[in-house]
Design goal:
By secondary structure, the protein is α/β, with parallel strands linked by helices. Helices cover about 35% and strands about 20% of the residues. Helix 9 crosses helix 11 and helix 11 packs across helix 12.
Length: about 625
């Protein structure tokens, strides 16, 4: 039995993963344990849990993998600072202590954190880790590989092929020219946090018009037919400064960056629409070029840009590939899993047999909790609960609550690996209720009203509600598809009767435009998750029961957390979030709790909640 541990750390979304004889056993992000969102520190809690779950002592580890090569990355940083000197001095002074204290001594740092474990340590190339995370768990015997992110060591995008148990990356785009950093520059300019607010830009884009698209393509970058590009670095500041954009950028787009939490204007929406349009165009060009060069019929993707599910959806619908598979933990967290698989298949040359679905087990790779553990906690808390011995009775009770317009916290099985809630740590609602998007955004998630919610749908019914071929699955919520015309309303209007055509900006949010309005975005798109019984078990049967009761095979599925907090991991965190929001019902495995029955229950605002539990 060969045990391999993979680690990603010291940038953002640090994580640990463990495989045994090539089988993925456990994987989790450090943030879920530390409760620090996007935690970048060494994943000691996540690693400890992986080892405990697998029943492995540190001394029994055979190999340790780290997801990038810090010495190569340090060389890139030094070259960049020297190229921009003396302008990069402040950035250099801020970055160098972490490198001197930890990153340049990473081998000894890993030994120290792992109690002196003497297993060989392998440092993989950053994009090799991404590529391995995309290809090796995929259902394909062979596929083209495309990785896209901010930056690894030098590469910002790569492509190549995977065949059997081997991967080969043959082409790359190099720093500072980066699609991920370009998108993050607009994220910063629009007043959102880099490395976490990119989802907000993607969600805001449909409210605007891509009126700056041509300006971006003419002034900021020169894009070739193959999707490669060069950026005019005079408009950016990330090489030499502590911000993403320069004064020249600000003059070009009409003013300084938006202040966080300030009002969003039509101009901001247009900027979001414009950078999203440019991103989609570049990703499409790259995908077509990769297809021409490799001749492969399948494509796998990873890297932070591969979480742009709108671009993924366009590649799926308009690109030349027959099938596409995206690593659900496509960002840096997935690099921990990628390097472990890279060691097993590529370096140790162990055989690989692709599984029909994939090898990710629905991405349910984190901690799970027994009914005994949950009941012990609830009794200690003095919570009032209903225990259901029969699953069918539990599902009936939950569906009854959903049908009545209640918001349900759903905690079941092992926690998801990656940024999406996929039916293990989810908040659920009825998508037919037009009020549900605003209710869940403002009263449950404490986040911006424009943020869209994702639908989860029975896999066999997806083609009836969304413009996807029958049988095409999207189990990891990584593709956006249009809502089917048959489900759209003929003359959509706002609640006070104003036709949608007369509305602009966020006023369009209030329009009921389909039979599932709470998950239909303003451009009639939806980031769907298909749910099947083999991957999802009880979650699939919940959707089935809701379908039987209502004739609708769709539910709202959003992550079980509030803004600023990582997705909940434990029953304690789920209960705490339940009590601190206007959530109506909580399901912890076989236990159902109603808010109004709980002792001394008081809904607090987001600031109180995060301050109380030191989550922000």
């Amino acid at each position: 039995m060969t045990t391999i541990v993979g680690i990603s750390a010291y940038y953002h979304d640090s994580a640990a993963a463990l495989i045994k004889d090539g089988r993925i056993v456990a994987a989790a992000q450090e943030e879920r344990f530390s409760r620090v969102k996007h935690d970048h520190n060494f994943p000691k809690r996540a690693l400890a849990w992986c080892l405990e779950y697998a029943g492995v002592e540190p001394g029994a580890i055979d190999y340790i993998g780290f997801y990038d090569k810090p010495l190569v990355k340090f060389g890139r940083l030094l070259e960049t600072y020297l190229a921009y000197a003396p302008r990069g001095f402040r950035s250099f002074v801020k970055a160098i202590p972490l490198w001197l204290n930890k990153k340049l001594r990473l081998r000894s740092e890993i030994r120290r954190e792992m109690c002196g474990c003497q297993a060989p340590i392998v440092f993989a190339d950053h994009h090799e880790s991404h590529a391995a995370s995309a290809f090796f768990p995929s259902p394909f015997e062979q596929a083209a590989i495309l990785t896209l992110d901010g930056v690894g060591e030098w590469a910002t995008a790569t492509f190549g092929i995977g065949i059997g148990n081997r991967i080969e990356l043959t082409h790359e785009l190099r720093f500072p020219h980066s699609l991920g950093l370009l998108y993050s520059a607009f994220t910063y300019y629009l007043g959102f946090k880099v490395n976490s607010g990119e989802y907000k830009v993607m969600g805001l884009a449909p409210y605007g018009r891509p009126v700056y698209r041509d300006l971006i393509l003419q002034r900021l970058l020169d894009v070739k037919e193959d999707g490669s590009f060069r950026m005019d670095m005079r408009y950016f500041n990330y090489c030499q400064g502590l911000t993403m954009t320069s004064r020249r950028f600000h003059r070009l787009f009409g003013g300084p960056p938006r202040q966080p939490e300030s009002p969003l204007t039509e101009r901001h929406m247009d900027l979001a629409a414009s950078i999203q349009a440019v991103t989609e165009e570049i990703v499409l060009r790259m995908a077509r070029h990769v297809h021409r060069v490799t001749g492969m019929k399948n494509l796998v993707m990873a890297g932070g840009v591969a979480l742009n599910c709108v671009a993924n959806g366009r590649v799926q619908r308009e690109g030349p590939f027959e099938r596409i598979w995206v690593q659900p933990a496509a960002g840096d967290a997935g690099g921990a899993l990628g390097v472990a698989l890279f060691i097993w298949h590529h370096l140790l040359a162990r055989p690989r047999v692709p599984l029909h679905l994939d090898a990710m087990h629905g991405a349910w790779l984190g901690p799970g909790f027994s009914c005994e553990q949950i009941q012990r906690f609830l009794d200690e808390k003095g919570a009032v609960y209903h225990l259901y011995d029969a699953e069918e009775d539990l599902l009936e009770a939950v569906c009854c609550q959903l049908e009545q317009g209640k918001v349900v916290g759903w905690f079941h099985n092992r926690m998801e690996f990656g940024p999406r809630a996929l039916g293990a740590r989810s908040i659920l609602g009825d998508p037919r209720d037009a009020r549900m998007q605003s209710v869940m955004n403002l009263k449950i998630k404490y986040r911006e009203s424009f943020r869209p919610f994702a639908p989860c749908v029975l896999a066999e019914c997806a083609h009836e509600y969304f413009d996807v071929p029958a049988g095409e699955d999207s189990p990891y919520m990584l593709f956006v598809a249009p809502v089917k015309h048959e489900q759209r309303l003929a003359n959509p209007r706002s609640a006070d009767g104003v036709p949608e055509a007369e509305l602009v900006g966020l006023a369009r949010l209030k329009v009921k435009r389909s039979t599932i309005p709470a998950v239909t975005h303003v451009d009639y798109s939806a980031r769907l998750q298909t749910v099947d019984e083999r991957r999802h078990g009880r979650f699939y049967r919940l959707l089935q029961r809701f379908y039987q009761r209502t004739g609708c095979p769709v539910l709202i599925n959003t992550s079980f957390n509030v803004r600023g907090e990582p997705i909940v991991c434990t029953p304690q965190e789920a209960y705490r979030c339940f009590m601190a929001t206007q959530m109506d019902v909580l399901v912890l495995e076989n236990y159902l709790l109603h808010k109004h029955q709980q002792p001394a229950g008081r809904t607090v605002n987001r600031q109180e909640y995060l301050a109380q539990f030191a989550l922000d």
